[in-house]
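Let us begin with a simple case.
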Amino acid sequence: MTESTTQASRREPSGVAAMPGTVAPPVPSPAPPQLSSPTRKGTTLAAGAALVIVAVAFVVPLAWLLLASINPSATVSVTVPTSPTLQNYRTVLTPELTFTPLLNSLVISGTTALITVLVAVLAAYPLSRYKMRFNRSFLYTILFGSCLPITAVMVPVYALFVTLGLLDSVPGTILFLAATSLPMAVWMMKNFMDSVPISLEEAAWVDGASSMQALRRVVVPLMRPGLAVVFIFVFTQAWGNFFVPFVLLLDPAKQPAAVSIYTFFGTNGAIAYGQLAAFSVLYSVPVLVLYLLVQRLAGGSFALAGSVKG
């Protein structure tokens, strides 16, 4: 009997209790393989080289833009001016070249962004808060609308604008730009609205608020960063849009800066590089100012999102 007991104990795996009803301790998982020092160093060098290439691809055009704007004899190459001057800025700072086109761009882009954000909030609210059978199909349908190239729809849009008498109309152009920006704006707005706790709306409903009052007083203040992101996205899309205003606006006095920038491209390949760079710097300033302003105003607006605890 002693011999059989000894053989049974030998068959038991090490570290497992022989008492019935006991639980065996977990077996530790093997440690992940560590990269050798040469492999780790090669990976670091490859990642650093990729970052350097990306940085150069962004820095070189910006360096040319800034240097050419103060260079009286700017060319297509990046060169440090021997005698920097602000003459290029003085040349382009005129109502015809800069002030009127920039004002047109602000009006068109700002109004387009406001209309798009307002309509996107109203469209995203039922998609986010109510479960309907056609929610997914509706979202995919409007997403398909954003995949259509603008060049494919401009011919029928042009014919429609001629029929409705909206050609060379700034409001008509704004409505069309807002319509083309809505699909992606609705998708983005729904994702931001999903992050707002519905418990806050339920508390407002208990207090007697309607759905629209809860949307205006509870949901919208909590998703101000999302509104800012969508606003900046739509604004920048409309700000840099060249094709739509070029086709729908015939009067040069109504065209935005994205179209008037081609004034600096002369005939027979002659390009005023210095004036073009100066105008491009001025053209990018409003977008940068808007981004900084909206980021400052919308910062920290998700602080109330943690007020509901399960």
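The second case is a distinct protein. As before, the sequence precedes its structure tokens.
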Amino acid sequence: MSSATLTPQKSVASTLSPHAVSRLRQARLARSTRPFLARGGPKGERCEGCRLRPSHCMCALRPELATRAAFCLLMHDAEPLKPSNTGWLIADVVQDTHAFGWSRTELDPQLEALLADPQWQPYVVFPGEYAEPAERVLETLDGGDSRALQPGRRPLFILLDATWSEARKMFRKSPYLDGFPVLSLHPDLISRYQLRRSKRDDHFCTSEVAALCLELVGDAGDVQAGQVLESYLGVFTERYLQAKHQQPVDEASSAHQRLRELMGAVPAKRDA
């Protein structure tokens, strides 16, 4: 976080259950010997539920949907602390989201158990050009081999949540992931994420990658959740930048309207 205090919005944030990324952030803060100083943005209080300024809090918009797919976020050390981190948004939207701090030398027993759980079919989501051997790579969940999504199993998408240079290092130095297929995404899109920029337009932020994964599952509920996540990112980005530039929230914006339309079509509760 920034050097400012993080303050819960009692009307909404205090009623929300902490999700996996929130819990990882609290554990990371407990280990800190000095405060994390975020770059950019005005100094001031931030909401514990959404990490935005209280005036721009979006906790009331948190969707929290059940999906067939699940996500496993392997987060580089500082990522849970960054207000601009979008892995947090995945955990806001997708109920089955797991988050672990990445370590080069140690494998978290809970992560090991998750990857071994037979209900899941894990996929490491990463550009195929970096995967060896090339036979590990696939671009769809359909197909006739053992890498395709099997009946009765649910996809578990493993996302490396870090800067691009950090993610490449994590991919190379995580031998416990070597046995899983690498899902390589080739969307005909340009990233619209505006808070932290890559040098390449085809490098997507973590929540954009998650939305694309949900669309690949093909289940109607997952496709819908992917659309919600994409729109939720749009609202988060808009409010983050409005707070940074000391502009008021525009709840009539196209981003807000799109999210309301999508949420209006989502049943209140769905079974995974």
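Residues 1-9 have pLDDT under 50 and may be disordered. The helical segments are 20-31, 87-93, 109-116, 164-172, 206-217, 220-244, 254-264.
Keep these points in mind for the review questions at the end of the chapter.
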